[in-house]
Amino acid sequence: MVSAPVTLSPAHLAPAPAAAIAPARATEAARVEISLRKVGVAYSAGKEGTKTVLANIDLEIPAGEFVVLLGETGCGKSTLLRLMLGQEFPTSGEVIVDGKPVKRIDSRTGYVPQKYSLFPDRTVLENVMYGPENARAGLLGRLTPSFWRFRRELREEAIQSLTRMGLRPQDMKKYPYQLSGGMQQRVAIAQALLMKPPVLLLDEAFSALDPSTRSSLQELLHSIWAESRPTVVFVTHNTTEALLLGTTLIVLGRHRDEEPEKSNVLVAQQLPTAQLPFAQRCNSAEFREQHEFLERVAFASSSRYRTQPPAQEGCHA
Question: Helices (H) and strands (E) in the chain — how many of each?
């Protein structure tokens, strides 16, 4: 008998401490934005045969959720994100985004990688406008009056978006190499959001930033998500960041050859901390209980947990 996919709602919570299973915002009636059906990924390992990275991933993610993928290095977090993007394809199973199977990279998903993805030979403003411009018209389409009206409107929208991300007018004329890492990542987020994708994917997008910049971008991203409510899937190995940002949490573990059919999904649950105001989350009892539980579940097999028991990180992810 084939089991039903794990739907991320209060009725389908993985084992967790009492604080973790408090009632969350109801999502049963929400449209399913992302569906992964018995997804598996295996790569050729030469003489050793194949190496399985993901197995039996069976999830349904409702529209409008802020989903965080948490887990140790090598558990398949980024691979799962690339499947949703269409940059890679599953060995088995099917990935569906916005009601259609994922066959290639397209406008359904925006993507912000860990390393900055800006064109070095374009200004900040040109970088942000590039995607919508290309989606609107090819070379011949640019010769029409309607395209230039569209471009003027797009420019104003891009300026507003960059201003919202904290950039000044003089910053918008600069090239990527003239910006700090934090500023480049702000531009990358604005670039992804201007395409208005129903799904936004972020792969360790803040991990290379200093704590102060990281904290400000976390708060800014959460604020933007709360306003427009795209479906966000955010990859991190930072437990504090996961609890701070997410409404829903998926914890992945490494695939083990001795259990070939076992899913990588260790935990799939809504977060009780998501009900609290953003500024109050880190100081809540729910946050502290969840933090300890998730460190134990997600990183118990790694040297990070074995050599030093997790300390309470506060809000500095």
Answer: 8, 11
